[in-house]
Amino acid sequence: MPDEIRRLSDDLARDPSSLVFMPLADALRRAGQLDVALRVALRGLDRHPYLPDAHDVLARIHADRGDLERASDEWEMALRLDPSHAHANLGLGFVEFRRGDLESAERRLSTVPPADHTPGVAAALAHVRSALGARTTNGVAVMVPEPQVVAPTPVAPAETTPHSTVSVPEFPSPDPSRTKQLFDSALDASDQHALLVDGDGLVLAGAYIDGSGKDVGEVIAAELAGVSSEAERAMRHLGLGAWTSLLVEADEAIVAMTPAPNGSLLVVTASRKTPVGLVRLLLDRVLARARDWLVRVS
Amino acid sequence: MSKTPYAELLSMLSRHRGVVGSFVVSERDGLAVDSNVQIGVHAEAVAALAASLHRKARLACGAAGCGVVTFLRLDAEKGGICAAGRDDLVLVTISEARANIGLLRVEMMRAAKALT
Amino acid sequence: MKFINDSRVRIAVLLESSGRVLAQHGFTRSIDVMSACALAAAIHASAAEIGRQLDGTPFTTLHHPGHERQIFLGELSTGRGAHILLTVFDDATSIGLVRLYFAELSRRLAVATTTPAAPPSFVDFESDLNRNLAKLFGRI
User: Fold this and answer.
1) Which residues of B touch chain A, with CB atoms under 8 Å apart?
2) Cβ–Cβ of C94/B51 closer than 8 Å?
3) Reported ipTM exceeds the 0.90 cut
4) Domain C2-114+127-135 has CATH 3.40.50.1000
5) Which of B61, B65, B81 lies nearest to residue A234, judging by beta carbons?
6) How far is CA A235 from CA A60, A291, B56, C123, in A?
């Protein structure tokens, strides 16, 4: 990989206006050098703003950085430039899948013409349909497959031809376990939710069903996991010892979180009507349940 | 140096049992606009870290559909931080474990409404 | 790396007051580092002189907030002379945090560099700079 990067980098240095910035940015992305990859892609797009493949590469870099909003913007831009861009559809399907919007993901992936089907599209479509089938069978309470936070990954090393940056999203298999209901009996009301989240912000157990019946647990977990790292940093620097709980009161909800075993994080949310003290009690109760469960599964 | 409009407010918060420092902080800059701290409290660090924590919590709650953050409390083994914000200004207190958080919370939320 | 991880700045360059690069993070091209170091050294020298004239002592830190990005330039006193840290950051962090971790870096660097080194000769400046850039990027 370093040799490939060096070679592509030399090619780009020789001809800064060439399209080699695309495979270079993608190679850097695959090597985990996301900041550099971003820089290369942005510079390339300065010169070639109307290349759908360049927007596709940039989108995958954003996705790897965990910025699905920007990734989505770039894939949409690629589609505006080329409405039949299979990889942009694949990427947007990936984002919709990540957000738990399986119907949209299925609809989008189905629109990719068979002629453009890469193994990635077929695999992604199969995963989404499998997850949709599981949801239909068991009702809305079935767990949405828990994807890894990785952008679509190219199946072949990207070279200088525009469509050589073929990618396959890593759609994971649906998790059949019924861990979504783990905390239900520890909670008092339907407006209370609990999520056990791992160190990367991925849901381990629990659910957060919004008003429309959709599980938005993954979004909540990913957003709130970042808050705990801020808490950890603040306490480390101020010498107040390890943080034990964080309680955030907002207009619509109260959110409480606490560190859980194995570097995980426990998040409890309740409607604004819930007394603040009760939320803390719920947090303790749910933490006890999470500890038991983690001991059993690990 | 003349007193800022927040001096009275901060003095009142710092008189609470266990409170070792109170601040008005710019959330965007992470800098203290005014503070009332006991000797030994690293005011710059508290201001920067509390502002960053409040900002992160505000953005996360917004994205998660929980609405606007009105109060935040971070507990640790030896004490904690409370924050109540309004626009870019955040009222912050740092306290020892013995502080009466209930009382402090009510006063901070009331005082935060007056921040301009 | 600790400073970069803690402060969450996008770009950081550590240089000597002569402009010689010591370390960098976030730049992809050597030409960017060269420009940044030349400008940073010049800005630092100007600010220090303004400070001397206005306040009797040199200004040692400087902050420019832009619309999306901000720069912070600060002098680090070490046992081997003054170093300059140039940072570029966005709304992932704040000037308060950057200053906080800059102060921490300053303390750590002061402890780590207790043995004074000979100042670089001006004659060697050009080759020294190029050698450092080569080391940073693997090539010029």
Assistant:
1) 42, 45-46, 49-50, 52-53, 56-57, 59-61, 63-81, 94, 105
2) yes
3) yes
4) no
5) B81
6) 34, 23, 15, 49
Q: How many CB atoms lie within 10 A of CB C46?
A: 12
Residues of B in contact with A224 (CB under 8 A): 60, 64
- From chain A residues 159-218, the ones with a CB under 8 A of any chain B CB are 210, 216
My answer on whether A150 and A293 are in the same domain is: no
Asked if the structure places residue A174 within a domain, the reply is no
**What are B74-108's pLDDT values in tens digits?**
999 999 999 998 888 999 999 998 899 999 999 99
Q: Which residues of C touch B55 (CB under 8 A)?
A: 94
Q: Are residues A149 and A76 in the same domain?
A: yes
Which residues of chain A carry a pLDDT beneath 70? 1, 113-124, 127, 130-178, 211, 298
Q: How many CB pairs under 8 A join A and C?
A: 8
CATH of the domain at A208: 3.30.450.30
- Count Cβ neighbours within 10 Å for each residue of A189-208 and write b for 16 or more, e otherwise: eeebbbbbbbeebbbbbbbb
Q: Using the beta-carbon criterion (under 8 Å), do B70 and A249 form an inter-chain contact?
A: yes
**Domain spans of chain C, in order of start:** 2-114+127-135
C-alpha distance from A47 to closest chain B C-alpha (Å): 33
Cβ-based neighbour number of residue C108 at 10 Å: 13
Q: Is residue A134 domain-shared with residue A24, that is, in the same domain? A: yes
Say whether both A11 and A106 belong to one domain: yes
Cβ contacts of A205 within 8 Å, gap of 6 or more:
A179, A180, A182, A183, A195, A196, A290, A293
What pLDDT digit, counting tens, does each position of A274-285 carry? 998 899 999 999
B19, B114 contact by CB (below 8 A)? no
Q: What is the DSSP letter of A298?
A: -
Domain range enclosing A267 = 179-297
Contact with chain B for residue C100, Cβ under 8 A: yes
Name all chains with 3 or more CB-CB pairs below 8 Å to chain B. A, C
A58 domain residue, yes or no: yes
Q: Which residue is associated with the tokens 């949405």? A: A144
Looking at the structure, do residues A185 and A157 belong to the same domain, yes or no? no
pLDDT digits (tens, 9 = 90+) for C2-21: 888 889 999 999 988 888 88
- Smallest CA-to-CA distance from B81 within A243, A19, A111 is with A243
Are A15 and A150 found together in one domain?
yes
My answer on whether A47 and A77 are in the same domain is: yes
What total of structural domains would you count in chain A? 2
Q: Give the one of B64, B73, B77 whose C-beta lies nearest to A247's C-beta.
A: B73
Q: Are residues A160 and A191 in the same domain?
A: no
In a 10 Å sphere around its CB, with 0-12 CB exposed, 13-18 middle and 19+ buried, how is residue A175 labelled? middle
Q: Which fold has domain B7-113?
A: Beta-Lactamase (3.30.450)
CATH number at residue A70: 1.25.40.10
Q: Which helix (H) or strand (E) holds B34?
A: strand B31-37
Q: Alpha helix locations (H) across A99-250? A: 102-110, 119-138, 217-238
